[in-house]
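Backbone Fold Data
Goal — fold tokens
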Amino acid sequence: MASTIALKQRIKSIKGTRQITKAMQLVSASKMRRAQEAALRSRTYSDIAYELLTRLNGVKEVAREPLFRQRPVKDRLYVIITSNSGLAGAYNANVLKQLFRAIKADQQAKVQSHVIAVGNKGAQFVRRLSEVDLVAVYSALGDHPTANDVRPVLKTMIDQYKTEAVDDVQIFYTKFKSSIVQEAQAVQLLPASSDKVGSPGVDQPVLNFEPDVETVIEQVTTRLLEAQLWQAVLESLASEHSMRMLAMKNATDNAKDLIDDYTLELNTARQASITQELAEITGGAEALK
């Protein structure tokens, strides 16, 4: 059994840890509410952007546009959204596991994998992988990201596709479903095509483009891709704070259980010490007689 001094030191240390985890839980809960509101508020816009992208696929001129042009996949680019820090449960691990499986599948198919990492955790993971090209690293976009923070990622992604450095672009992120449920997802961004287009018997509406179809499609497609990337960032941010809040709550609860266990052990050790001292006093008194 540990000494009472050691047990007191352990209890004091765990109490300090519990205060830290409790504070982090409250901070994450506050950030989660704001991030959740932002993700839910823009989700409708993101869905409409996808519908517009679907309608654009019905225009025959898009086949000539670089962002819609499909080609055999020899190089694939992954955009992964992770965090800069840990202590968020399985938030980073879920995305990185999905990325690892995708890279393994690419290696079996003789496809070269490239990665754009948003967040240092993802970059650290990719650097340890062999035969994977880390194209760019962007630090996590903070608790209040703006569209300007997302555009460098979008520009790098589009430039890689337009120059034919890659033939396919996918984004891995964590979708926020509730404060308890978050799910890692993979979405294809480029080529900007949709399987919902071209249903037989459905007439595509007549569209007029000004100043010309090429300019409109290029600019509109870029904005629609930006909306999807922006939504992925907001979903990931809400998921990160939710998972960190739950992780810190579990840590706080575990710290409380440890304190209770060590307190019981301390009381037991103290009682044993008192009993031993009483026995020694009684024995000494009997010896003097």
Notes: The chain has one domain: 25-196+207-246. Residues 198 and 240 are 38 Å apart (CA to CA). Residues 213-288 form the longest helix (76 residues).
